[in-house]
């Protein structure tokens, strides 16, 4: 059985969807770097950075980094269609989100990690600039990858799942609705997929799909 370490409103939602698509047994251990408890202590023992999602495979391998986990599952279970489509562009897109969007969100959420004891004004300046870059990165993503989010059977592939999840943070959807409305609607298509929708609803119960 797969063991997934994560918590609601986090990137673990992507891996929950992927595991369901792979039709494998799994369970989630609630854990994160920002909460205490047995789950978080167990997470720290296998991933010292306490990053989520972290996935432990049935043979005991520890997998971290959302993009890497999605790629592994897609390769391990081809029938899941997680990597169905133009694989080169799917892989490129997954790493694009990890490098340009996910990393920016980490700076926005934890500016003190990068600035140490800098005063609040300096931290706020970093957050503002990083959020501006994040929104620009999403607009570029919309232009480059809009037609790469679905398998031929219209199920979201790994790139579609990751894009729909990570764009839920830091007002990215609002920016895309204004500057790339067609792509924003493509993300709504992912949101309403019958496998994706229940997971997103559990993670973000107050989110209204529009």
From TrEMBL:
Gene3D superfamilies on file = 1.20.1050.10, Glutaredoxin (3.40.30.10)
> Which PROSITE patterns does the record associate with it?
GST_NTER
Give one GO term, molecular function aspect: transferase activity
Signal sequence range: none
Under InterPro entries, the record lists: Glutathione_S-Trfase_N, Thioredoxin-like_sf
Q: Where is the GST N-terminal domain?
A: 1-81
> Which keywords fit this entry according to its UniProt record?
Transferase
UniProt-listed SUPFAM superfamilies = Thioredoxin-like (SSF52833)
Record field: transmembrane: none
Protein's name according to its UniProt entry: GST-like protein
- Which species is this record about? Pseudomonas costantinii
